[in-house]
Amino acid sequence: MATQTVESNSRSGPRPTNVGSL
């Protein structure tokens, strides 16, 4: 799950929805 969050962050830009989980 953490991997998907990091990837989304790079794609989305600022931070995804699961950024708080990290």
Automatic annotation (TrEMBL):
State where composition is biased (Polar residues).
1-12
Does Chloroplast appear among the keywords? yes
Please give the residue ranges the record annotates as the region Disordered: 1-22
What UniProt keywords are attached to this protein's entry?
Chloroplast, Plastid
Q: What is this protein called?
A: Photosystem II phosphoprotein
